[in-house]
């Protein structure tokens, strides 16, 4: 029986992320499209308030600098997300091609070479994902800094709250601080996760191709 390489430890994480974001081409169409709609709504729900805020502060260079990085993240995520959808048939063909290439390997030295490149790919994708989400974790933890400092080095009054980024929901941001923060915690990891997923899938394709070239030497 032929081994399904996407169920091996080399590609299992990439496959799970692909399923999570509705981009695994072998999912039932209804399920795939429903997941895609949910992901799109989550990212859009945070991008729109940020774009509104950007328009409001368009003449304030400091505020623009604060807004642009996160807007760039969300736009980049949506661009990669829809690019994957538009090219989903090509992505499916590449996955099938990878499985066929693996099934056609006959010599043990070629199999060993592919295993070596798959290991490199797994190391790269895991390192990249850990680095990205570690940075995200530090970023998301920033609102807790005033609370921690109030405990370690209390002042006569509570320190000012830290906002993750500037947005405009047309509500009192101090009154709805917790709700806005929860919304950020729900949406930003999804936006970053889309980028990590797409980058890791391309890395997977590249390492497979490099392995084939090495085996042909």
UniProtKB/TrEMBL annotation:
It is a multi-pass membrane protein. GO terms for biological process: signal transduction. It is found in: Membrane. GO terms for cellular component: membrane. Keywords: Membrane, Olfaction, Receptor, Sensory transduction, Transducer, Transmembrane, Transmembrane helix. The keyword ATP-binding does not apply. One of its GO terms (molecular function) is odorant binding. Its main location: membrane. The chain crosses the membrane at residues 123-141, 176-198. It comes from the Eukaryota. This is Olfactory receptor 21. It comes from Meteorus pulchricornis.
């Amino acid at each position: 029986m032929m081994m399904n390489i996407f169920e091996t430890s080399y590609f299992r994480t990439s496959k799970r992320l692909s399923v999570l974001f509705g981009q695994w081409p072998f999912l039932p169409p209804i399920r795939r499209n429903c997941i895609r709609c949910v992901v799109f709504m989550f990212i859009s729900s945070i991008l729109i308030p940020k774009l509104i805020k950007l328009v409001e502060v368009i003449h304030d260079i400091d505020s623009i600098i604060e807004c642009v990085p996160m807007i760039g993240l969300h736009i980049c995520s949506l661009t990669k997300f829809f690019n994957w959808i538009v090219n989903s048939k090509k992505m499916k063909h590449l996955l099938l091609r990878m499985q066929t290439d693996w099934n056609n390997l006959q010599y043990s030295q070629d199999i060993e070479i592919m295993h070596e490149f798959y290991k490199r790919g797994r190391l790269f994708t895991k390192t990249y994902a850990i680095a990205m989400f570690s940075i995200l974790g530090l970023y998301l933890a920033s609102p807790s800094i005033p609370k921690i400092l109030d405990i370690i080095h209390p002042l006569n009054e509570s320190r000012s709250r830290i906002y993750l980024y500037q947005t405009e929901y047309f509500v009192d941001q101090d009154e709805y601080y917790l709700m806005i923060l929860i919304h950020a915690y729900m949406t930003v990891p999804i936006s970053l996760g889309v980028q990590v997923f797409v980058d890791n899938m391309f890395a997977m394709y590249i390492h497979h191709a490099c392995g084939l070239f090495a085996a042909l030497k």
